[in-house]
Amino acid sequence: MRLHDIRRPKGAVTKRKRVGRGHGSGWGKTSGRGQKGQKARNTVKRGFEGGQMPLQRRLPKVGFRNPFRKEFAYVNVRDLNRFEDGTEVTPALLLEQGLIKKIKDGVKILGKGELERRLVVVAHRVSKGAREKIEAAGGQVKEV
């Protein structure tokens, strides 16, 4: 078998039904919609259930999404071990190194893992645990 021998299976591709093209076609006049009525007139709205309360109105509304919430890019303390001693770790440096994809509304340093380097960490937010670990390693924290 070669590439030019490949064919689609019989019946895989069919012509589309062209309705409303004269009574000789078998799909003329009412175009398969029958006589009169709502469905014949093409007026049924999306989600309409014949007068029954639609599903999207029957289901309860739940929760609240704050439009003013701040979304941070998170970095754990263990990820900062890749930098040399005395490095000033800024959001721009984290972005450049690929530790975060976007700065968003700021960068927050979290306290997961251990830190073996003395670093100057500049971030928008720092968790209590992360601050303790950075300072215990001899580094310092600056908040933007």
Report on this model:
- The protein has 144 residues and is an alpha/beta fold.
- The radius of gyration is 32 Å and the shape is elongated.
- It contains 3 helices and 6 strands; from the N terminus they run H-E-E-H-E-E-E-H-E.
- The strands form 2 sheets. A 3-stranded parallel sheet has the order 1-3-5. The chain has a 3-stranded parallel sheet with strand order 2-4-6.
Q: What is this structure, in a nutshell?
A:
The protein has about 140 residues and is α/β, with parallel strands linked by helices.
Number of DSSP-assigned strands: 6
Question: What is the residue-averaged pLDDT?
Answer: 93
**What form results from the Cα inertia axes?**
elongated
Strand percentage, roughly? 5-15%
How helix-rich are the residues, as a percent range? 10-25%
**Measured on Cα atoms, how large is the radius of gyration?**
32 Å
Oligomer: single chain
Low-pLDDT runs? none
- Distance between the ends: 67 Å
Q: What's the helix-strand series?
A: HEEHEEEHE
Helical/strand content category: alpha/beta
The strand order across the widest sheet is 1-3-5
How many strands, what sense, and barrel or not for the largest sheet?
3 strands, parallel
The number of helical runs is: 3
